[in-house]
From TrEMBL:
It catalyses: 3-dehydroquinate = 3-dehydroshikimate + H2O. The keyword Amino-acid biosynthesis applies. Homododecamer. This is 3-dehydroquinate dehydratase. Pathway: Metabolic intermediate biosynthesis; chorismate biosynthesis; chorismate from D-erythrose 4-phosphate and phosphoenolpyruvate: step 3/7. Its EC number is 4.2.1.10. It comes from the Bacteria. Substrate binds at residues 72, 78, 85, 99-100, 109. GO terms for biological process: amino acid biosynthetic process; aromatic amino acid family biosynthetic process; chorismate biosynthetic process; quinate catabolic process. The record marks 18 as: Transition state stabilizer.
């Protein structure tokens, strides 16, 4: 059984409420329940924090014992050298995920400190981006 974790960054706790025109109206908990049901062969955990250091600590915690990390660092994608370095320092492969197409948004969102150290990047497919990332580990 594959052991994966989805790690979400700042403001993603507001999914289903925040800017539904960009992020949809489904809460992440509702989506996660659907995904767990669809992939019973995957041990899937979830962690969300609005705090950069907590995201780095979680990457360190899982970075040597999990089969994969699905990371949506949200706004920290474009600002956090520390999260990029944390990914570089762990062994577990990381897939960078974004719900929206970041290249269709503000120019500052075109830069990622995650991508250079990620196994791959999936963006613009709504919540299905997470499911595509799960499939990449199967």
């Amino acid at each position: 059984m594959k052991k994966l974790i989805i790690i979400n960054g700042p403001n993603l706790n507001l999914l289903g409420k925040r800017e539904p025109n960009i992020y949809g109206s489904l809460s992440f908990t509702e989506f996660l329940d659907e995904v767990k049901e669809k992939y019973p062969e995957v041990h899937l955990e979830y962690f969300q924090s609005n705090i950069e250091g907590e995201l780095i600590d979680k990457l360190h915690d899982v970075g040597f014992s999990y089969d994969g990390v699905i990371l949506n660092a949200a706004a920290y994608t474009h600002t956090s050298v520390g999260i990029g370095d944390a990914i570089k320092g762990i062994e577990t492969p990381v897939v960078e995920v974004h719900i929206s197409n970041t290249f269709a948004r503000e120019e500052f969102r075109h830069q990622s400190f995650i991508s250079p150290n990620a196994k791959g990047v999936i963006l613009g497919f709504g919540l299905q981006s997470y499911e595509l990332a799960i499939q990449s580990f199967l």
